[in-house]
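How it folds:
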Amino acid sequence: MINKIPHHLKKYIVEQNYNDYTAIDQACWKFIMKISISFFKKNADSSYLKGLKKTGVTIDKIPKIKEINKALIKIGWQAVCVRGFIPPHAFMEFQSLRIMPIAADMRSHKNLTYTPSPDIVHEAAGHLPIIVNKDYSNYLSKYGEIAIKALMSNEDLNLYYAIRDLSDIKEKPNSTRYMIKKYEKKLNNAYDNITFTSESALLSRMNWWTVEYGLIKKNNKTNIFGAGLLSSVAESENSLKKNVKKIPLNLNCIKYNYDITEQQPQLFVTPNFKYLSKLLTQLSKKMSFQKGGIYGIKEAYKCNSICTIKLDSSVEISGIIERYIIYKNNISFIKLKGPAQISYNNEQIKGQGPDFHYHGYSCPIGKIKKYNKPISELTNNQQNNLNLKKNKYIELDFLGGIKLKGKIIKLYKKKSKLILLSLENCLIKKKNEILFMPEWGQFDLICGENIISVYNGPADRNNYYKSINENIEEKFNRYNIIKLNKKIKLEMYFEKIENFKNQTNKKEKIKKLYENFKQNNLNDWLFKYQILEVLKDENDDWIIKIYKELEKKSLKNNDLGRAIRRGLKLIK
C-alpha cells in the first residue's frame, strides 16, 4: 500500500537533480561501493547483498531516487528525496509511514571515507539494504511511530541545529579551519547547555546503537547492520577491531551518549532483529505517551517545546506547557504558551487552531464538585441542572477549588458527549487568584478528567503547521557543488577518463591525459585510481609507476590509506 505523504512533510521534499552530480561525485560513489561490497560480503548481515539489489541501489553509478522508490514499493516502503539534515521529528514521521527520506547530497572528495552529514551513500547504501529483512523493517517503522511521540526538549533542538551546521560546514569545499572551529564551539556550547536527558534523546541513543551503528551476532560471528557503518568506508573496518568494545544489546544502551562527528568507542550487538522490537516495546512503556498523568506533564514542562496533552474524553490540547496545578495526584489546571491547538482524536476542532489560540491556552481539568464527574460524563439531566445550554449563564465549581462563571455561546459534542464549551464574559478563579478574565475574550473549556497521554508535537500536524512556519531552510543546498577553480579543472579529467574507457586506443589517450594532468600540477589519488581501474590489464612502466605511488599512499596508517589499500586489492 502506498502511503499518502502528509501536507506538512511535503516541504522537506526536493528534486534530486541528477545532472548536478559531477564526474568526481560518480567516481567517489563507485569507489565507495566497490570496496564496500568486497568488505561487506564477509562482514555485513546476510540481508546486505540481496538488499542492495531489491532496493534499487546501483553500484557503478549514483542511484536515482525515483528508481529506488519503484523498488521499495514492491516491499511495502517508499522513498523521497529530501534536503539533507531534516528535523528529527520529520525524519521519524516519514519512517513511521514506511517512507525512507534520502538526502541527495553526495559526500565531498575529501570526506570519502566518512562524513557526519546525511548523504546518498549513507541514506541509500546504508539504510536501505537491511530493510528487506522483515523483522528489521518492522522495527524501523515501529521505531518511527514511537519516536514521533517521544518528548523532545528545546535543548535537543538546539543540539540538532548545531550538529547540522557543523556537518554542513565540514562538507563545504571552501571551509576554513577557522569556520570549522567556530561551529565546533557552537556544538560544544549546545552540549554544555543540556540540563537533562529527554525521552527523545534516550530514544535517539537506541536508534544510534541499533539503526545507525548496530551489530548482530549469528553463528558466533559478529556482523554489521547499522547504516552508519554500512556507509562508512573507514569506521566499518575499524568497528570490528578488538579496540572497539562489543557489548550485548540491552536497554542500558540508552545510558551511552554519542558524538555524531566522531567514530564510536563501543558498539552493541543484538542476537536477532526481533529482539530490537522487544527492547523498543519495553522502552516505550516508560514514556509519557504511555504513562500520561502528572509524570507526563512534568516531563513535557521540562522540555519547554510543543507537546500534546490527551484527555480521557479524546480531546487534545497542543502547545508549550507554561504552568500546571496539581490536586490530589491529578492535574486540575493547565496553561500553555502559544500558539496552541485543540483537537479531537488528532483532528483540529473547527475554529480551535493555532491562529485563534495564538497567544496560548489555559483551562481547568477534572470533576465538577456537585456531581463528582467530569463534564464529558454528565447525564442529560445533570447537564440541564447545571444550565449547560447555549446562551445560558453557568457557574461551575471544580474539585481543587477552581470556580468558573460565564455565558455559553457554543457547545461541541462527539458521540453524544460534551467535549468543549465556548464562553464569553468568562471569569475563572482559584481562591483570590484570577486565572482568566472576561476582557481576555472567548474562553474555551475542554471537557475531561484524566490525562491519558502526553506526547511530542501537535495533535493535528497538518493543520497546526498550516498556520505556523517552521524554522527550516526552504532552499536545498548541495554544498559540494560549490566549485573551486582547482576542482573545476579536476572534474574535466574525471569526465575525459570516463569517456575514454570504452574507446579504441584508450591507453594512448589516457596516457596523454595523465601527462597533461601532471603538467597542470594536479595530484589526485582517485583520478590515478581511475586510470588503474580502466587499464588494470596493462603493465606499461608509467602505469606501474602510478600503482606504486598509490601503494605508497596506502601504507599510511589512516582511514584513507586503508581505503586505498582495499581498492588496490580489487585491481591487482
Q: What stands out?
A: The radius of gyration is 29 Å.
